[in-house]
Give the backbone structure.
Amino acid sequence: MSDQSESDEAIREEAKQAASESTEALSEVVRALTLRALTERQLDRESIRRAVTLVTEGLSEGFKNQSGDVEPKLKAALNGVDEALKKSAQAAKLAAEETLGQAKEFVEEDLKSVINDLSSVEGIFIDAINKVGQKSGELTGAVLKRLAEHFNNSGTSAGNEAKEAAAQIQQQLANLMKEGAAVANHTGRKLSEQIAQVASGILSGMAEAINPQEKK
């Protein structure tokens, strides 16, 4: 088993164990776990999808044998995932500001991919909940489906933050074009990759500030 596979399994198992926490503690515990899952990979669309799926799968497994109404606890747990994703959007916004502020040339489609990725954060979150719900037991699956509908109807903190970040990058792209930055056919290293790497570092700092015990 690869190091990444072992790490993924550890995240899933910790999420499963987190289901035994009190409703009051769940959001914070799951937020910290999701932040850790996000910081263990480069911050891009597929990594976000993977981190959210791992945590949600673990939660589903942890709640499947619990008696009584698990919806309040599962909602609290998913709110923790939402808050972690909000932090990731904030990190992306700061990373874009830093990276694009130094850019001398850019590929327009490359930056548009960053904007599209940010715009899809809420959808990734809701889609992951739905897909895990489809694979879960009848009761837990039904709860996940209802919560996915809830987030879809009411919106998410992560989605709002990500849309702000996308709008900021869109404005920065317009500014780059207005200021005459070179529109390159290619660059040695895509700005989107630079932004993702910088964002990962910023998010790690945020996670350590929130949960200093996680610092290695």
In short: The chain has a mean pLDDT of 86. The first strand starts at residue 105 and ends at 106. The first helix runs from residue 3 to 18. Strands lie at 105-106, 182-183.
